[in-house]
Design brief:
By secondary structure, the chain is of the alpha+beta class. The chain has helices at about 1-30, 45-50, 55-75, 90-100, 105-125, 160-165, 180; strands spanning about 35, 40, 135-140, 145-150, 180-185, 190, 200-215, 215-225, 235-245, 255. The longest helix has 30 residues, at about 1-30.
């Protein structure tokens, strides 16, 4: 009888131990993922062992977000840039570039030389001959009986059109004699086209000095050079003349006082 009791107790003890062992194995399997050869199967190796040289995505993203936020903040708070105008309505940049007093004599003389040469060409084209295409078979006469020829160039149908072209070089603050050599008739414009030769002794001109400055006009000395004259025995000589450059509101310089030297 006693042997049966001891056998039963031994069997219960073995069952209890087996239960504890199963609980430990179960707990161990829940807390630690299954591994093979020491490598965790559920987590990729690159995630557990990141490359130390690889940039950290989270850090870069944070820096990019911060930089973007900073740029957005700067753009939203930046004030628009604008040039302040003075009492005359000109911005400082315009005033600096336009005002004659801000240019040296050398700069003004250089500008005037170019303008003087342009004025010579324009004056010659409009006063001697004509810069437009003419129909010599269609004419009109003025009160003095002078014969004028029809201008056929596109867009030129009045003296005002002719003056607009002329005043691209000359200043309209000075009067012109174009109405004496161009004639309007029947809604068309005619040109006198008075041909002549130039002075064969003329050799050139040079703007040599600034003589005075005004707010919007600068006056210069021009020296016109001639190799001789029709009078026998007279050699080369220089003739001095006055020339002026007028500053217009658009910042351009136009010829003012002017005399064609040839």
């Amino acid at each position: 009888m006693m042997k049966k009791i001891f056998a039963a107790l031994a069997a219960l003890t073995m069952i209890a131990c087996a239960g504890c062992s199963d609980k430990k194995e179960s707990a161990s399997s829940e807390s630690v993922p299954a591994t093979t050869g020491g490598i965790v199967q559920d987590v990729p190796p690159e995630e557990t062992q990141p490359d130390p040289l690889e940039p950290k995505p989270s850090t870069d993203a944070t820096e990019a977000t911060a930089a973007e936020a900073e740029t957005t903040s700067a753009e939203s708070t930046a004030e628009p840039v604008s040039e302040e105008s003075d009492e005359s309505g000109e911005s400082p940049a315009e005033e600096s570039a336009a005002s004659p007093e801000n240019l040296s004599d050398e700069e003004l003389v250089s500008m005037a030389q170019t303008l003087f040469e342009s004025a010579c060409r324009t004056s010659w084209d409009f006063h001697v001959g004509c810069p437009y295409t003419l129909d010599y078979n269609s004419t009109a006469e003025n009160s003095l009986g002078w014969k004028f020829y029809l201008v056929t160039s596109e867009g030129i149908s009045s003296i005002a059109d002719v003056e607009a072209d002329y005043y691209s070089t000359f200043s309209d603050t000075y009067t012109t004699d174009l109405s004496e050599i161009y004639l309007e008739s029947g809604g068309r414009v005619y040109a006198l086209d008075g041909q002549r030769g130039s002075n064969i002794y003329y050799t050139g001109s040079a703007v040599t000095a600034v003589t005075s400055r005004q707010e919007n006009e600068v006056f210069f000395t021009v020296e016109n050079y001639y190799s001789g004259s029709d009078f026998s025995g007279e050699g080369a000589y220089t003739q001095t003349a006055e020339f002026s450059a007028v500053l217009h509101e658009d910042g351009s310089w136009r010829a003012g006082v002017f005399t064609l030297p040839y």
